[in-house]
Design a protein that fits this description.
GcvT_C (chains A, B); alpha+beta; 368 residues; Gyrase A, domain 2; six-stranded antiparallel barrel; TrmE/GcvT-like (chains A, B); EC 2.1.2.10 (chains A, B); Alpha-Beta Plaits; DMSP demethylase (DmdA) (chains A, B); Elongation Factor Tu (Ef-tu), domain 3; homodimer; transferase (chains A, B); 32% strand; 22 strands
Chain lengths: 368, 368
């Protein structure tokens, strides 16, 4: 792996000091911000995530804040998901598309109040899209990136660790709900959510100055729980079918291709951007869709560019994320497969770099 | 330096194969794309850039294409620069600001025709801003990212190399003008421009498939010119005062703070986003501004986060880019300095990481 050159443009986070002290070995860049990818090894991190508890610096999940009388109206324009039933205290995963139905981001929206939302974004400058629309339509809403940096606590012992720092009432937070919890006199949003299937929480740390005090408090409280620094784990997220914007989907894809059709209420979400295009897509269905794919043979390298999925001489899709799974003893992968070959157990070939051809099988469900 | 993890989200370019073969040692991520930062060493690359000719993969300068009857109207909304005199064949550097006058990008616009522009962007998803506005206002314009990847030829021998590949008429291209030139039957935009002060060209390579053929042709033709793979050079760009969006300026800054007031024709650019805010700024002038700063002592480390500029106990600015300059035998730096301390030859202190204090001097002009 090549080195990464430091610059202010690759922003540090309120927790970077802790991440470095814990020995992060590699990084990616996400929303112009550093995101660790490996601490001990991807496999060791994976084992630990499934058995203990990890603290993840996911400050790169930047927030787009909408605040003001038109915040709710603007939110409804932004997503084909029906937000009418959304109450303060809830988190909604919501696809955001352009006028052609192409995915711009797949964030989690956090409803703080009737006139105030955070959109916790994947890797694209969604702020620019939201600001552009709000400005052009003269909407009465402030749109900005606040000083809020999520810290995720993930793994089977996450609840125990959180209870020690925030009190037992965190145990009552339901999935994709949040509450306000006190830390050193500051009231923070704590949600039961996170980018793993091991369960856990995301703390929306408001105010960079309390980043390291909170980081340290968590490590102090969790010593006997074997708490460790971690990060979204490539193997675990593929096993769980957790998609990554920019990897498994881009602006070229509709939500339906990404298996996100259930978040598109095109009949009721009237007035959202891209609705006309999505009505068409919803009616006809997509011609390609995200699938779990098992690739045979030795551990594959990192997927730095899409790998063609072949049926004989014809390309019928592409793999966009892949890793060796120690638990399932196969290479687990996420790919987009054409309708002709997306039925479970369809056998295909995957073209790895340097011309290597591997047998692979399309599955209907992910591993976790 | 930590390693960078490969993923499709950090996009490869049509020239990545060549960049890797030439031994790129480190990368940054720019517009979700890989950009090499070092080949031999930053200093060796710098020497070579100033004496020979380099081929730079700057595909990460993605294009936002505007095409259609409203393209010109939308362009005028996007920038405070007066575009009325811009003709097809011209390139314009143009600040783009939000409604508060905060910088969103500082691209170079390329006017292909009255109804067709490319905006060659710095590191932010300007596409989202432009698409958002165009959609909200129902403008008749297509806004998209085309398959166009700039390749820069920079250095004193750039013209000679270009003439060998594209013919002698490239010599007639004036600064910030472009022409259409043939390569293997494909007509490409070739501009006299680039992110160095050594002179050179940018080829807007349309069609990823001809990326490597062009790359190879340039290296083949330039053997006796000591052509080498290169990249924007940190030392050279600081010496020349070439700003970097995300490093030396962010959304927090106005064009006037960045010394770009001369590109803001707020009296004539009526209807552009942010005009009201910029009128105010133009009248009052900025209270802080970009300056050249020389930092004494041994070579400084990479500037991964702003370094405070101090006058006694008061912070009066920050350094955002810095490097040791072999030619000027000092650390050259770019920073934002408050009005109280921006006069040439003002002496200040710079706080480096780990509490190190360095004497420094503010200058009125850059080195190159």
């Amino acid at each position: 792996m090549a080195a990464i050159s430091p610059s202010r443009r690759l922003r540090r986070t309120p927790f970077s000091e802790g991440v470095e002290a814990m020995g992060a070995k590699a990084y990616t860049v996400y929303n112009h911000m550093l995101l660790a990818t490996v601490f001990r090894s991807v496999e060791e991190d994976y084992r630990h995530l499934k058995s203990a508890v990890q603290v993840w610096d996911v400050a790169c999940e930047r927030q787009v804040e909408l605040r003001g009388p038109d915040a709710g109206k603007l939110m409804k324009m932004l997503t084909p998901r029906d937000l009418r039933g959304m109450l303060p205290g809830q988190c909604y995963y919501m696809p955001i598309v352009d006028q052609t139905g192409g995915m711009l981001n797949d964030p989690v929206a956090v409803k703080l109040a009737e006139d105030r939302y955070w959109i916790s974004i994947a890797d694209s400058d969604l702020l620019f899209w939201v600001k552009g629309i709000a400005h052009a339509l003269h909407m009465e809403v402030l749109v900005d990136e606040p000083d809020v940096s999520p810290l995720a606590i993930q793994g089977p012992k996450a609840e125990e660790l959180m209870a020690r720092v925030f009190g037992d009432s965190v145990r009552n937070i339901r999935f994709f709900r949040f509450g306000w919890f006190d830390f050193q006199g500051r009231s923070l949003v704590v949600a039961r959510s996170g980018y793993s299937k091991q369960g856990g929480f995301e703390i929306y740390v408001e105010g960079s100055d309390i980043g390291m005090p909170l980081w340290n408090a968590l490590f102090e409280a969790g010593k006997d729980l074997d708490v460790h620094a971690g990060c979204p784990n490539l193997i675990e997220r593929i096993e769980g079918g957790l998609l990554s914007y920019g990897n498994d989907m881009t602006r070229a894809n509709t939500p339906h291709e990404c298996g996100l059709g259930r978040f598109c209420d095109t009949q009721t979400a009237i007035g959202c951007v891209g609705r006309d295009s999505l009505l068409r897509v919803a009616q006809d269905g997509p011609v390609r869709q995200i699938r779990a794919i098992a690739i045979e043979g030795a551990p594959v390298p990192g997927c730095g560019a899409p790998w063609p999925i072949m049926a004989g001489q014809d390309q019928v899709g592409q793999v966009t994320s892949a890793a060796w799974s120690p638990d399932y003893e196969t290479n687990v992968a996420i790919g987009m497969v054409r309708m002709t070959h997306w039925e479970p157990y369809t056998e295909v070939d995957v073209l790895l770099p340097e011309g290597e051809v591997r047998a692979a099988t399309v599955f209907g469900v992910f591993w976790n």
